[in-house]
Amino acid sequence: MSQVIPEKPLRVVVWSTGTIGRHAIAGVDAHPDLELVGVWTSTEAKSGADAGELAELGRELGVKATTDRDELIALRPDCIVHGAMTDDRVFESIEDLTGFIRDGVNVVSSGPVILLHRTGTLPDEMIATIDEAGREGDASLHVNGIDPGFANDVLPLVMTSLSQRIDHIKVSEIADYSTYYQPVVMRDLFGFGEPMDAKPLLWEPGILTTAWGPVVRLIAAGLDVALDEPLVEEVERRPAPRSIKTVSVDIAEGTMGSVRFRVIGTVGGVPRITLEHVTRTDASAEPEWPVPNEGDGCYRIEITGEPRMKVEFSHHGEHGDHNVSGMIVTAQRLVNAVPAVVAAQPGLVSALELPLITGRGLVSK
């Protein structure tokens, strides 16, 4: 399938004005195929503020933010770019997204990542409800980003097109999270800065499979591989060797400072697809763990077989570090997917169902 080029600009609402939303506003404004018509904010203090101000563009866009859902739906946008926090309200956010497509508005969203792939995680009846809402509103829902998302679904699958034989695929994020601003994620989900005997949600059995299992299962689906169930989880947490301050949480010496985890898909007990995260809050910690070849963060794809292949993908913000650019690439994966998702079949669609998505129209003039 070739990339989708709309006949006229698509009307877009950006849902949130935080770490992803403000970059999405800038992305929609810069895209020749899109027109920003509305912005939602959860913060009363931001209601009525111009979108250009919220995105720190240095100019007004003539679009005011609002906390009123129905006001934005009444604009009849073609698509919502949804970047609101979903990690701490997974099922409530699924209801929100389902409501949007039932109301006839297509959605691209950075979460919940449990919707990255339709099978193996959520009950079939929940996916059927989303599909029915999509048919009712003739609208589609696509959840993606950078990780989970492009770096561990589209990129590794494209690489496999060069393979003669595939023995094992490993997709990794290797990153320093000290400049990643998400206090809820950092403290409550990961447990950074908490005592080593604390039990944050992410390390409870089955949660990693819920969060990152869809990535492993999507790769398997793209390669027509039937995985053993359940997926295998491995976690190794390490205490901070010294006290440090991050933008999200202060980490005292001896509290949790680093983690390495894996979600592994096996076939007949043999590992075939592995997702790994190596997450530090101090770049000098755990030197024996994998490190980026350059910079402070990367995504790495390693394919063992014939031939053996490795790709390391890194990014860095023009005016910030890799965590800033991480928010930009997440937002842009959604923004640039809007035309393809608007043209897609109704219901939940994954990267496997979408055509080529590029940065068409974004080359500097």
From TrEMBL:
> Is the S-adenosyl-L-methionine keyword given for this protein?
no
Superkingdom is Bacteria
Domain 2,4-diaminopentanoate dehydrogenase C-terminal spans what residues? 152-358
GO terms assigned for molecular function: kinase activity
Q: Does the keyword Transferase apply?
A: yes
Provide an example Pfam family for this protein.
DapB_N
Cited SUPFAM superfamilies: NAD(P)-binding Rossmann-fold domains
Name it. Diacylglycerol kinase
Q: Which organism is it from?
A: Nocardioides bizhenqiangii
